[in-house]
Amino acid sequence: MTGSHSELHLEEGEDAAWDGAPSELRQVAVTPAQHGLRLDKALAELVPELSRSYLQQLQAQGLVQVAGVVGLKPAHKVKAGDLLQIEIRPTQQSQAFKPEAMALDVVYEDAHLLVLYKPAGLVVHPAPGNWSGTLLNGLLARDPSAQLLPRAGIVHRLDKDTSGLMVVARERSTMDALVRLIAAREVSRQYLALAHRAWQGVPERSVQAPVGRDPRNRLRMAVVDLAHHAGKSARTDMQLWAGNEQGCLVHCKLHTGRTHQIRVHMAAIGHPLLADVLYGGTPAAGMQRQALHAYRLAFAHPVDGRALAFEVPLPADMLQAMGQWGLRYNFG
């Protein structure tokens, strides 16, 4: 795989997973684009499927050679044409980027991209605790050319227990264009959420509240005060679609794509999602996973400019939960 850094991170002690299985010797040549870079930065660019922390561990263990020289410091400057040899010991992470056949629900496909439906429970990227069986593994099995793309063409993600639509690139130029569209907020991502408690106030509201790592619990995100904590601006537009004394069905439109943004914003206004225990929700109405569904995705095709829009109905568990609570909405 080539391109930008993988978003995987090696957990502390992960290299201990190596049990003497055969190592892989990888040889890569420094290109003119990496000339003069530090060795650790050049490695991160040339072997992007492995995290920088893992590559740094390999350097520290003497498993990286530059033109046959072992043990150079990470700050060593490489030159165009230098041959780097890396002995990759097979940790769970280094073996994570492997094809695994799985049934993928493809909604649309052309030579440049595909749109698919991700069911709840499917992890998007390999990560600690889920090194296999991810959407990325399935994409690699479905199309061998995906190995030429960073993250197999995945340009955005959904949480494991969120269902719904995703767009995936099939070529590098399309991937770069989709990333630009998302950064420019030109990809419309709309969600349906089932939340606790009767909706209060006007049926439409826009929540603009920065989101960052929760300073009291590093496993969560939270609305933060940027004067005191790191975070990024975030905006979610919300509209009540159905509600009663037990709960509400809320349409959410993202204007930014922060981690857990809808879940955090809904909890912040007093409406945690059903079964979203991380943010104050509890299992209810039969829901055992956070009640969030990415039901609509719309954007201009990055190659030919066509307006593309896709919708998928609510999954069975959310429909059943609505029925149990007596919530009604005509989805047309």
Query: Kindly, what is the distance between the CA atoms of the first and last residues, rounded to a whole number of angstroms?
Result: 43 Å
Main beta-sheet annotation:
9 strands, mixed
Report the count of strand segments: 15
Instruction: Supply Rg.
Output: 22 Å
Instruction: Tell me, rounded to a whole number, the average pLDDT.
Output: 89
Are there runs of 5+ residues with pLDDT below 50, and where?
1-21
User: What is the chain-wise order of helices and strands?
Assistant: EHHEEEEEHEHEEEEEEHEEH
| Helix residue percentage | 10-25%
Write a structural description.
- The protein is an alpha+beta fold.
- Helix content is 17%, strand content 26%.
- The chain has helices at 39-46, 52-60, 135-142, 172-183, 261-268, 316-325, and strands spanning 24-29, 64-66, 69-70, 83-88, 105-109, 113-118, 163-169, 188-196, 204-208, 211-213, 221-223, 235-243, 247-254, 292-300, 307-311.
- Strands 5, 6, 7, 8, 9, 12, 13, 14 and 15 form a 9-stranded mixed beta sheet that branches.
- A hairpin with a 7-residue loop joins strand 10 (211-213) and strand 11.
- Helix 1 (39-46) packs across helix 2 (52-60).
- The radius of gyration is 22 Å and the shape is elongated.
- Residues 1-21 have low confidence and may be disordered.
